[in-house]
TrEMBL record:
Protein name: 4-coumarate--CoA ligase
Xref: PANTHER family: AMP-BINDING DOMAIN-CONTAINING PROTEIN-RELATED (PTHR24096:SF149), LONG-CHAIN-FATTY-ACID--COA LIGASE (PTHR24096)
GO molecular function terms attached to this record: 4-coumarate-CoA ligase activity; ATP binding; trans-cinnamate-CoA ligase activity
GO biological process, one term: phenylpropanoid metabolic process
Record EC number: 6.2.1.12
Length: 401
């Protein structure tokens, strides 16, 4: 049997410089750490209505809604479900959970009743925030389980439900004090189910802060977001890609986040032109529709300086056709997972190389050779110790219990 390379020969490091990771503050404080600099700048624009909320308004609304959640019995460590399409209310509710020490589990409102019930039971959700059009999917379940339903948009709320607006009128000063721990879970998104049924992923304040910091903090950030950017949010916030790399990263740098409730190529093009979108996070199916649509040539898309594509790889042929539509933009492909938020950035890519690991990703161990032999077979490193090593090196892994 041939010799096996020593461990140091199979360890890869990011080419980007290390950065300081802030691990002693909660997620909402980290995202709004520099709010004094851009308190009156637009934070969220609702693409459907044109309504604009400033950073100061979003921060104040999140504090009030956190107090409103307290009034409904939600305390530190309690789980509530955000069953919403992209909307300003989604942003406010998620940040409110962080303020109150609660845990937000995010779910697709287009799920079947059975799928919603399964996630609500599995996560232990005590309250569900949704739109009135989805209430029939959860009404019987909520009644049986004693789960509170909070609805967005309608006043008064449907029978048996509470109104989002009512909770938003709570006194922020009544918010209960929270004994914060960086390893408290703040988000409980569910995986896409690639290798089986969707699974709840416990993401802590520490892990999400680390992940966002890798992307936008330091002297050489990966995403190069700026406070004067207009960031398109058409990807669903209930998935980790948009929640992390669009919403949280955008908030951290003070960018303007333009929210679309769903993808439609015509309205998307109109919004890009109207609001001069500079950053466009997409996925390959959207890119394909973009390339195929005859509408694209009728709009001025010159404001777009960067396109991020994630969730799945984009082929070279599709990439070339897409970039021909917006030749002044830079394209980067991003690889990320719900479970650990490891990121591979392709902004330094070549025709044969994706790019590099993000800052602060200390090491990646190759554990399987082309001949099928794993390095763990050759070295005294079982599955448990390998996982332990990764968790120690990479604080943006999920919490495992």
């Amino acid at each position: 049997m041939g010799s096996i390379a020593p461990p140091e020969d199979i360890i890869f490091r990011s080419k980007l410089p290390d950065i300081e990771i802030i691990n002693d503050i909660p997620l909402h404080t980290y995202c709004f750490e520099r709010i004094a600099q851009f308190a009156h700048r637009p934070c969220v624009i609702d693409g459907a209505t044109g309504a604009v909320l400033t950073y100061a308004e979003v921060d104040a609304a999140a504090r009030r809604f956190a107090a409103g959640l307290n009034g409904e019995g939600i305390r530190r460590g309690d789980v509530f479900m955000i069953l919403l399409r992209n909307s300003p209310e989604f942003v406010i509710a998620f940040l409110a959970g962080s303020h109150g020490g609660a845990i937000a589990t995010t779910a697709n409102p287009f799920y079947t009743p059975g799928e919603i019930h399964k996630q609500a039971v599995g996560s232990g959700a005590r309250l569900i925030i949704t739109e009135s059009c989805y209430v029939d999917k959860i009404r019987d379940f909520a009644r049986e389980r004693g789960v509170t339903i909070v609805t967005v948009g309608d006043s008064p709320a449907p029978e048996g439900c509470r109104s989002f607006a009512d909770l938003l009128r709570a006194d922020a000063g009544a918010l209960l004090p929270v004994e914060f721990d960086p390893d408290d879970v703040v988000a409980l998104p569910y995986s896409s189910g690639t290798t089986g049924l969707p699974k709840g992923v416990m993401l802590t304040h520490r892990s999400l802060i680390t992940s966002v910091a890798q992307q936008v903090d330091g002297d050489n950030p990966n995403l190069y977001l700026h406070e004067d950017d207009v960031l398109l949010c058409v990807l669903p916030l209930f998935h980790i890609y948009a929640l992390n790399s669009v919403l949280l990263c955008g908030l951290r740098v003070g960018a303007t986040i333009l929210i679309m409730r769903r993808f439609d190529v015509g309205p998307l093009l109109e919004l890009v032109q109207r609001y001069q979108v500079t950053i466009a996070p997409f996925v390959p199916p959207i890119v394909l529709e973009f390339v195929k649509s005859p509408l694209v040539d009728g709009y001025d898309l010159s404001s777009i300086r960067m396109v991020m594509s994630g969730a799945a790889p984009m082929g070279k042929d599709l990439e070339d056709k897409f970039m021909a539509k917006i030749p002044n933009a830079q394209l980067g492909q991003v690889r990320l997972e719900t479970t650990h938020s490891i990121r591979f950035f392709g902004f330094f890519s070549t025709d044969y190389c994706l790019g590099c690991f993000s800052s602060r990703l200390a090491r990646l161990l190759v554990i399987e050779k082309s001949n099928g032999q794993t390095y763990s077979d050759a070295f005294p490193m079982n599955e448990a110790s390998t996982l332990s090593l990764f968790i120690k090196l990479l604080p943006n892994f999920l919490l495992s219990r």
